[in-house]
Amino acid sequence: MSVERSISAYTRARSVIAGGVNSSVRAFKAVGGNPVFMKSGAGAIIRDLDDNEYIDYVLSWGPLLLGHAHPAVVKAVQHAAARGSSFGAPTEAESELAELIVSMVPSVERVRFTSSGTEATMSAIRLARGYTHREKIVKFAGCYHGSSDTFLISAGSSALTLGIPNSPGVTQGTARDTLVVPFNDAAAVAHAFERHPEEIAAVIVEPYAGNMGLVLPAPRFLHTLRDLCNEYGAVLIFDEVMTGFRVARGGVQERDGVLPDLTTLGKVIGGGLPVGAFGGRGEIMDRLTPDGTIFHAGTLSGNPLAMAAGIATLKAIRDDATLYERLSVLTALLIDGLHEVFEKHGVAHVGTHAGSMFTAFFTPDPVVDLTTAMKADTAFYGRFFHAMLDRGVYLAPSQFEAGFISTAHTVRDIRTTLDAADAALAEIVSSS
Ligand code: KE4
User: Which of 239, 261, 369, 422 is catalytic?
Assistant: First the structure.
């Protein structure tokens, strides 16, 4: 398989773009080799500059629940673009997307849009701090909430992949206000509240952690966070940027029946265009400027093109009664099939999946937090990643990322993927 055009494209990019990429994880640092440059996508298939085609399980890191270039999304964006891309003034499209979110996400009464998930989580924390008049927050090691300073302490995703979960440039003052505890460790959260009973503004959690690879909450873990925040007067924030509309129509909060005070969203609600959102209880959200005093703004917040893509996506989700069942069946088919293939080749692994998110960890031990996730054999993952890439399957270029399935994926795609995994492991194991 030739990747010559990607290689020269990377050289070109590196001369004018720091690191040759505009988001770190795309550089393939965790898996080695030259990043693949893409030029088009259709449904479940993505095509690179050398015209290699891949079954895509990255799906732009989650946004493309309906697959690449879904006709309804393309048409909506084209139609919106023909009327003008941005006005810096309110449009009804923002209200329409907000109404769809409010109608489907159980705890959300009011919404504010941003242009990224990072802006959404950053703003939600500011709102929680302003609302409670407190400064500290609790986050979980390995959870990733975007690239704002507050969260780059024991962060997941590409911060973890690159081995800099505590990024240079984050000040001691910022770090001092971010208390980090292990995911799934409710006792550690209780201890943090006991030590800082009047100081914690918010607990922010990925309710299903997708940025260590997919790590699911222990039974009652989320309920305990809810109870502790009630007891100590802190704001519970579910960062559902990745899980929102991905694991269920109403996200984890619908699936597990735990209602946060604030929710952050992104990815799927923009249908592949730049978008984020934070929302929740009206009495909290109404403290935002201009009605309140807690500041929020953004030039392209609620951008008409992003709203159009999001509206088309959420309407498709709203109107497809069997969507989540079909995605769940396909995802289970993939994970169960991979389990059989890994067993056949004697490869130690643990598979997790929820809705249409999944991860195969190359470790024999259960993965329940960052410490256990870090035991995974990342070198083996890198070899598996490239062996699959060579066979036309595009997995996340890091062990510490989740994989995704879209409504465009078929049983045939899954079977092709499993055949590729069988051949890839035969190659790896025989050459070991
Ligand atoms: P963005 O600023 O990248 O739109 O969203 C940040 C964010 C916030 N919260 C959660 C739970 C997230 O997963 C993310 C971003 N996810 C990563 C994938 N692990 C984006 C991929 C990238 O960094 O390029």
Answer: 239
pLDDT single digits (tens) 91-106: 999 999 999 999 999 9
Q: How many CB atoms lie within 10 A of CB 236?
A: 26
Among 283, 318, 353, which residue terminates a domain?
318
Nearest-Å Rg of the Cα atoms of the chain is 21
Same domain, 58 and 75: no
For the chain, what is the domain count? 2
User: CA–CA separation, 219 vs 149, rounded Å?
Assistant: 31
Instruction: Determine whether 239 is an active site residue.
Output: yes
What are 251-281's pLDDT values in tens digits? Answer: 999 999 999 999 999 999 999 999 999 999 9
- DSSP assignments along 105-139, one per residue: STT-SEEEEESSHHHHHHHHHHHHHHHHT--EEEE
Cα–Cα dist 181/224, whole Å: 14
For residue 161, the enclosing domain spans 71-318
**Alpha carbon 295 to chain centroid, angstroms:** 26
Q: Select from 267, 301, 318 the last residue of a domain.
A: 318
Whether 144 is a known active-site residue: answer yes
Residue 277 CA, chain-centre distance (Å), reads: 13
Q: 385 and 286, same structural domain?
A: no
Q: Which of 261, 267, 324, 413 is catalytic?
A: 267
Do 64 and 75 fall within a single domain? no
Cα–Cα distance measured from residue 265 to residue 245, given in angstroms and rounded to the nearest whole number = 9
* Co-location of 302 and 337 in the same domain: no
Tokens of 71: 């006709």
